[in-house]
Amino acid sequence: MFLLLLLPAIFLVQKRLRLFLLGLFLLIYALSIEPTKEFLLLPLEDRYPVPTWSGMQHADAIVALGGGANENAPGIDGKGALYGESLQRVVTAYRLQTTLKKPLIIAGGTLYGQRPEAEISKEVLRRLGAQEQLLVIETRSKDTNENALFVHDICRKNNWRKIVLVTSAFHMRRSMMLFGRFFDDIVPYPAAYKSARRSYDYWSFLPGASNLEDVADAMREYLGITYYKLTLRSS
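Structure (tokenized):
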């Protein structure tokens, strides 16, 4: 919609401003089409393939990283609902737990609200049928770096050394970088893929807000990876 409003404005302004608006139009268009999204996401999502079952059988615990929640959304259990990406991570972790029969650590504290995301995730898992005695919540973390730190504290106290790490595929590279500081044996299990992985057609080149959002997520990951590479190297 913004591009449709911007296009006629290009022809109604002075030449200097017209060139600026044209450049802005082309930039927003390029960032909101599927090929750009795939170009940025695929290197992140394909870094770690889905592991085999045999590679996970000797894990001590499963770790699911939070992806956001609305603590005030009404639901069956009162208030609190997971965002779509976070729900996909939790469901994937639950499916792994039902097969592996291992403890599941749910990581996610509060960023702006009052109720930790991990508590909301635990309620979702209980409703799905997860065994409560196998659920462990980590509620202090505010970002992936703190996820790794506080999950390590839990694992160290329980003598859990090998973990299966569940997070979004595009987020796995940065997560492995941070968790790798504390764990020597991690099995990455990517979930919540964003890339369409299909042949392009006419619709692929139409701009979409969801594409723009996914591009923003990918760019944030690249910035985060670069930041931690620099800061971890200097420390």
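The helical segments are 2-10, 15-31, 34-45, 84-100, 117-128, 144-158, 172-179, 209-234. The chain has eight helices and seven strands.
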